[in-house]
Write a structure and sequence with these properties.
Layout (H helix, E strand, L loop, with lengths): L5 H17 L6 E5 L5 H9 L4 E4 L2 H8 L10 E3 L5 H7 L5 E5 L2 H11 L9 E6 L15 H10 L3 E7 L7 H17 L4 E3 L6 H6 L4 E4 L1 H4 L4
Parallel strand pairs: 1-2, 1-8, 2-3, 3-4, 4-5, 5-6, 6-7
Helix pairs in contact: 4-5
Length: 223
């Protein structure tokens, strides 16, 4: 795992912020996706004014977070597919669970986070499969309200929705997917929507994203 130097990341953050503003996202949060990069990427994200870091893998997050001093830590968003048996090991490190897509995960987060006072109520985002691609995580759009009701009944704080754009990056399909998720969020009275990555962030912001998840454009290609 390799991380660019701080001056390079500073320049790249400024470029991303400029893209966000140009797309009309004055209040859009920048989540630095630090998966596959050294713990120094987390420290750099803090130093350069990112709003949070995003991690995909339980063991990688756990191994890296201990190398980051408390004063250099940003909120940690877990954005990878969640396995129920990994949640127990993650509860001390995750601030926002972004990829919640089924009832078993909702139940396990509630069970584990209730034990830790400063992690309760846990903040979650429901992941929606807005592209109908079977290889993508996320619940079906028609299931979001049911999942939200279950999470709320267990005391979880559902702060918004999350989605991943289509693999083919086709602009019209991307826009339709993001527009659908924004509509569902509005219908459910949810303000936050996490959608948009390096290649499709402008479309996501135009369609109402409140946070974008950026890795490659900040830290370079993953090896």
């Amino acid at each position: 795992m390799i991380t660019p130097d701080l001056s390079t990341i500073t320049q790249r953050v400024a470029q991303i912020r400029s893209r966000i503003l140009s797309a009309g996202g004055e209040n859009v949060s920048l989540i630095a996706v630090t998966k596959s990069f050294e713990a120094s990427a987390m420290i750099a994200a803090h130093a350069t004014g990112c709003n949070a870091v995003g991690e995909n893998y339980a063991q990688e997050l756990i191994s890296k977070i201990g190398q980051v001093p408390n004063e250099n830590r940003l909120p940690v968003h877990f954005i990878g597919r969640l396995q129920s048996n990994k949640i127990k090991s993650l509860v001390n490190f995750v601030d926002v669970w972004q990829s919640v897509d089924r009832i078993s995960v909702v139940e396990e987060i509630a069970k584990r986070c209730k034990i830790i006072e400063h992690r309760w109520p846990a903040q979650i985002m429901l992941q929606v499969n807005s592209t109908n691609e079977p290889d993508k995580g996320g619940c079906e759009p028609s299931e979001v309200s049911i999942l939200m009701a279950k999470a709320s009944a267990l005391g979880l704080n559902v702060i918004g929705l999350m989605t991943v754009g289509p693999t083919n990056n086709e602009p019209d399909q991307t826009r339709a997917a993001f527009r659908l998720v924004r509509k569902i969020a509005n219908d459910l009275g949810l303000d936050q929507v996490s959608m948009g990555m390096t290649g499709d962030m402008e479309i996501a912001i135009e369609e109402g994203s409140t946070s974008v998840r950026i890795g490659t454009a900040l830290f370079g290609a993953r090896i």
